[in-house]
Amino acid sequence: MDEQQKKWKPDPGKFTDNWRKMWFEILDGRRFSIRQTHGDEAAKKYRPHSAEENYFKQWGKLPAHVTSEDTEVSYADALRVMEMVNAHHDRYWTQMTKEYADKVKAFWKRLSDQLAEVQATPAYQISQQDRKELIEYSEAIVAKMRNLGSNGKTKHRAGQQGEQAIANQTQTAPKAEQGQDANEAAQ
What is the full DSSP assignment across 70-111? Predict the structure, then answer.
């Protein structure tokens, strides 16, 4: 990958308006999720940490999305902001879960009821055996892969498959007659 494409280099002057719009879309998404699990009142009480908002509007990335490899933005600054944001969110969720425990309980009951309804459908019942067989097949493959690597040695020496392919190709390749190239002989 081209180094210029790989590194994120923010350009606040060029993208400030877009980043501001994106920030409000992020908040709308968070509030939508909160509304689903804790209710409308809890969603209205959600406020992002100001450091996270400022960081996003300055760099065009949430601090949680910054890694040391992909950006010219300071990784240490992103970690510092994330610590504050995580503490802020922990306090918010602890409070909201206490205040709106009945809403959270109702949310989980809805999910449980919906799951039971889906599991009772004929289509689910029919495909249940297929799912079970796929899971068993996948588990068998994973077990086989573990066994192959369990002794720390591979079953064939490196390059063996490539050498075998070359040997097979030369054995099956038709002989070219005088004045004929390999492509003509193959036809």
Answer: SBSS-HHHHHHHHHHHHHHHHHHHHHHHHHTHHHHHHHHHHH
